[in-house]
């Protein structure tokens, strides 16, 4: 394990844990408002996203809006026996995951068939980010493996609190960057050769 990554992971997990529910909710509202402005998300047919738990940047509000707009929204499905995310779950309005169920405990037992390359947009969590689009997650490599399989025409959007953005993150060969990062304060384009529209 990369010791610098481990240090950053522990430091920023502790910082995030200090956020109050009100701060998390406010940040979620601001990030949701910025996501609404992105043409790449409005025009997507299929979106792959995490469902937040703990003090991750909230996704439930934007996921409900995407479903109401008729989009297919896919989330990681948790395998209770293996205690890992190993397959996929198609979200629907009224889904327990959108009503507050913990995604690491309460994902339905069945898996939905889904090809990663079919998603046009990915909403990606992280503990620490840099402005080049690199991230440090919880250390399991799940989203790096997902992003390694995505279509080259897709767009990966990292969701972050502003304090999670640092100058540079140490990299491992398996790491995958996102194309832009949305925080409550701004949208950071990390792939300058791509136009995302607003």
TrEMBL record:
| Coiled coil segments of this chain | none
A Gene Ontology molecular function term for this protein is: metal ion binding
Gene3D superfamilies according to UniProt: NagB/RpiA/CoA transferase-like
Q: What cofactor(s) does the depicted protein rely on?
A: Mg(2+)
The answer to whether UniProt assigns keyword ATP-binding to this entry is yes
Its EC number is 6.3.3.2
What are the alphabetically sorted keywords of the record? ATP-binding, Ligase, Magnesium, Metal-binding, Nucleotide-binding
One GO biological process from the UniProt record?
tetrahydrofolate interconversion
Known catalysed reaction(s)?
(6S)-5-formyl-5,6,7,8-tetrahydrofolate + ATP = (6R)-5,10-methenyltetrahydrofolate + ADP + phosphate
Q: Would the keyword Ribosomal protein be found if you checked this record's keyword annotation?
A: no
Leader sequence range is none
Where substrate binds, per the record, is at 51, 56
What the entry lists under SUPFAM superfamilies is as follows: NagB/RpiA/CoA transferase-like (SSF100950)
| Residue numbers binding ATP | 5-9
Query: In which domain of life is the source organism classified?
Result: Bacteria
Hey, which family's this protein in?
Belongs to the 5-formyltetrahydrofolate cyclo-ligase family.
Name of this protein? 5-formyltetrahydrofolate cyclo-ligase
Q: Which organism is it from?
A: Sumerlaea chitinivorans
